[in-house]
């Protein structure tokens, strides 16, 4: 069972909180993936993100309540100085391209480099080929995406934010990987960890509100 709130501020208790960032070129469907995951909705005419958008949902992963807090970043270069500030502390990253636009796939290497440079070395990255519902317009093959993911040793899925194909699965699979690493390494709940928050309340809300104030300055 899962509970959701579009602002990521649900008051339900959780065992872990994972912070995700979603990056990629403009109009690849990043905000639509977020909306589909948190609210099970698709918006055909979604306005371009300015700065950063927020969302969140609590899932049960391996008998643990995991709160996933998501920062959806703008793809336009003019906002990248702002959005890079959200890489710090991220546990997971979705690097998204549009299977109908070759240039968005060609820019994936740049986005991966951005993640590697600005985020923790332990961040769990998943490559997402979005808009699978537009199969007749496809210009990037599944094998191309799979090969690139294999090259970088990261997860890969094709999704459709419109039909919800693989959207939940993408978050679940990546969260499972993160949790497996935590349980194997034995994170100490009494020690501050910038990438994983272990808690049982809403003490993260003030930080969310503060970041909202700054995101589009």
Features:
8 strands; single chain; 217 residues; Rossmann fold; disordered C terminus; disordered N terminus; alpha/beta; globular; 8-stranded mixed sheet
CATH homologous superfamily label = P-loop containing nucleotide triphosphate hydrolases
CATH structural class: Alpha Beta
Q: What is the overall silhouette? A: globular
Mean pLDDT: 79
* Uncertain ranges: 1-11, 188-194, 199-203, 205-217
Helix percent band = 25-40%
Number of strands: 8
The total of helices stands at: 7
The CATH topology corresponds to Rossmann fold
Order of helices and strands: EEHEEHEHHEHEHEH
Distance between the termini: 37 Å
What's the Cα radius of gyration?
16 Å
Strand content: 15-25%
Number of domains: 1
> From the helix content, strand content and strand pairing, which structural class follows?
alpha/beta
The CATH architecture can be named as 3-Layer(aba) Sandwich
- Major sheet size, sense and barrel closure: 8 strands, mixed
């Amino acid at each position: 069972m899962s509970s959701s709130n579009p602002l990521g501020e649900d008051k339900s208790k959780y065992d872990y909180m994972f912070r995700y960032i979603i990056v990629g070129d403009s109009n690849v469907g990043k905000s639509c993936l977020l909306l589909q995951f948190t609210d099970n909705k698709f918006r055909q005419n979604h306005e371009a993100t300015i700065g950063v958008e927020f969302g969140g949902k609590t899932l049960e992963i391996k008998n643990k309540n995991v709160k996933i807090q998501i920062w959806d970043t703008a793809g336009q270069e003019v906002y990248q100085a702002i959005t890079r500030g959200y890489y710090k502390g991220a546990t997971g990253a979705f690097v998204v391209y549009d299977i109908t636009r070759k240039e968005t796939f060609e820019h994936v290497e740049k986005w991966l480099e951005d993640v590697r440079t600005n985020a923790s070395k332990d961040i769990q990255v998943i490559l997402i080929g979005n808009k699978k519902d537009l199969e007749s317009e496809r210009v990037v093959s599944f094998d191309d995406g799979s090969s690139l993911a294999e090259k970088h040793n990261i997860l890969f899925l094709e999704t459709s934010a419109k039909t919800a194909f693989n959207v939940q699965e993408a978050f679940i699979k990546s969260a499972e990987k993160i949790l497996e690493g935590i349980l194997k390494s034995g994170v100490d709940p009494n020690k501050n960890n910038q990438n994983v928050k272990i808690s049982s309340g809403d003490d993260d809300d003030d930080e969310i509100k503060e970041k909202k104030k700054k995101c589009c300055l």
